[in-house]
Each structure stands twice: as C-alpha cells, then as structure tokens.
Amino acid sequence: xxxxxxxxxxxxxxxxxxxxxxxxxxxxxxxxxxxxxxxxxxxxxxxxxxxxxxxxxxxxxxxxxxxxxxxxxxxxxxxxxxxxxxxxxxxxxxxxxxxxxxxxxxxx
Length: 108
Prior knowledge:
Structural class: mainly alpha
Distance between the termini: 28 Å
Largest sheet: none
Shape: rod-shaped
Strand content: under 5%
Number of helices: 3
C-alpha cells in the first residue's frame, strides 16, 4: 500500500473486478427469478390441461380469461428478466475488458 493515501492501480482494478462479480451475482439472481416467474404460468397451464376433463370451457371462461392474461404478463416479465440479466452482465464485461486490456484474458 502506498503511503501517500492514493490507491494503486492494481487495487482499483481488483476493486472493479469485485464490483463485476457482485453484478454477476445480481444478474444470476435476476436470471433465476426470471426463470421461476416464467415457469409458473407453464405449471398452471399444465394443471389446467390435466384437469380439463372435469370442467367445461364455456362455464369457466370468465375465470379462465383473466388467468390467461395474468399468465401472459408473467411470461413477458420472466422473459424480460432473463434477457435483461444476460445483456447487462455481458455489456459490463466488455466495458471492463476494453478499459483494462491487461485483465481481459482473465475475465473473458
């Protein structure tokens, strides 16, 4: 550590790598959440299909239509979370690789 109080370049680089790893954890958490949100409508639809012989579509349509709209919203939200997490993390890796060519070999 330098005595004048200013951080070394290596410390700054490793600090940014730590930030990158923290962002990676956040992106993976968002990815996991997106997959779970995306899977919920699929499981609801599979349960509805499996039990379809016990009800008539004409009679349950007032309940089925809002459920399908909710499922569509969840699918859109899950897809958005997945793509957002993948894109954000990859963009940040490219920025750090361009900024510090000396560490590019370690983070690619």
